[in-house]
Specification:
single chain; 410 residues; Aspartate Aminotransferase, domain 2; 2 domains; four-stranded antiparallel β-sheet; aminotransferase; PyrdxlP-dep_Trfase_major; 2-aminoadipate aminotransferase
Length: 410
């Protein structure tokens, strides 16, 4: 082979990477929240943007002790590959709480993986997916690559409007409904008991799969606890194999997010397919992390939940009090009974995307509401998180945000 026979050199920059992407990859987009979080990394910024658990509440010593116990008890097995289904003692503990078999529980690497793999399993090109308006942005990111046709459901202070949904289902043939019934991300709203019962019955009657995303359910700081959609479904149909509800839970908000432990409860056909999908994604959730969580659920988690509820409840009340006192007339907000978020609706003439730029100049940040709408809208809304801000930061940040809004109205 001579020099003249050698392939011509190709500059890497000339390769058509965009043309190489699959249709699914082209539907991927950056998280608006994650992009905003880059701004808020500046230490002087008071951030109400990211839905971050309060780091000062993390049970660091308890996690350290649990890690030592796991290594002493399991040795090398704690650091070895494990089964895709997950650590059996943890699955058995979750199953016992739900009144189901461990075979109906799959451990996941964070609830975001649950949403991604469920979307991969259940959503085909053009399938109709019902979502709240607004809904969790991370769910839209997970579902978008699979080409769903979204239909937005109307909602009010009690969550999904079931009368309106019943009318929609007379003409809409939906495959899947995604909902966050407890302290919804982004609005903080809670679906009422009567509507929960109707939603389970209505979706069952229409043959619609219902994904219940419940990462915040344990963080209730006011009002009475309500049964999950999954619980109601089990009572209605008599067992997990008859239930059309898929329950997604997480330890991230009640223990620590960095261990990335979550779970799915569902009928065996869903669990079996989820195992196959997870094997292609990451084989299994880290063994060591699962064992640490298993050590904490009985001894540490109950008190940790009470601590989180007390702190978040105080911060939510303080934020709402400052907003009521300082925000201009015509600005409305939700009143969450738990969770980490509340939702603000501004007068129609305000667009919260450019408003964010002005707020950052006053060293405060939030998440504009538009990305939470599957089909557009919400230009005059914003999500505020109270979980990781101190009372002093809330005081200062809400005052700065009030000034920013007033300036936009003047």
């Amino acid at each position: 082979m001579t020099a003249t026979d050698a392939p011509s050199a190709v500059s890497p920059s000339s390769f058509d990477w965009e043309g190489a992407f699959s249709p699914q990859a082209r539907r991927l987009g950056s998280s608006a929240i994650r992009e905003i979080l880059k701004i808020t990394q500046r230490p002087e910024i008071i951030s109400f943007a990211g839905g971050l658990p309060a780091p000062e509440l993390f049970p660091i010593e308890a996690v350290r002790e649990a890690a030592n116990t796991v290594l002493s008890t399991y040795g090398a097995a704690a650091l070895q590959y494990s089964t895709t289904e997950g650590h059996l003692p943890l699955r058995e503990w979750l199953a016992a709480r739900a009144g189901i078999d461990a075979a109906n529980v799959q451990i996941m690497t964070g609830s975001q993986q649950s949403l991604d793999l469920l979307g991969k399993m259940l959503i085909g090109e053009g399938d109709v997916v019902l979502v709240e308006a607004p809904t969790y942005l991370g769910a839209l990111q997970s579902f978008n690559p699979y080409g769903p046709q979204y239909v937005q459901m109307a909602a009010d202070e009690e969550g999904i409007d079931l009368d309106a949904l019943e009318e929609q289902l007379k003409t809409v043939k939906a495959k899947l409904l995604y909902a966050v019934p407890n302290f919804q991300n982004p609005t903080g709203r809670t679906l009422s008991l009567e509507r929960r019962q109707r939603l389970v019955e209505l979706t069952a009657r229409h043959g619609i799969i219902l994904i219940e995303d419940d990462p915040y359910g344990a963080i209730r700081f006011s009002g009475e606890p309500l049964p999950s959609l999954y619980e109601l479904s089990l009572k209605m149909c008599g067992g997990p194999e008859r239930s059309h509800v898929i329950y997604s839970g997480s330890f991230s908000k009640v223990l620590v997010p960095g261990l990335r432990d979550a779970w799915v409860q569902a009928a065996l056909p869903i669990i079996r397919k989820l195992i196959q999908a997870k094997q292609g994604a990451d084989l299994h959730t880290p063994t060591f992390n699962q064992m640490i969580i298993s050590e904490l659920v009985e001894t540490v988690m109950p008190a940790q939940i009470e601590r989180v509820k007390a702190v978040y409840g105080e911060r939510a009340q303080h934020m709402m009090a400052r907003m009521d006192a300082q925000f201009p007339a015509g600005v409305q907000h939700t009143t969450p009974q738990g969770g980490m978020f509340l939702w603000v609706t501004l007068p129609e003439q305000i667009d919260t995307v450019p408003l964010l730029e002005q707020a950052v100049k006053r060293l405060v940040a939030f998440v504009p509401g538009a990305p939470f709408y599957a089909l557009g809208g919400g230009h005059n809304t914003m999500r505020l998180s109270f979980s990781s801000a101190t009372l002093d930061q809330i005081e200062t940040g809400i005052a700065a945000l009030a000034q920013t809004i007033q300036e936009a109205l003047d």
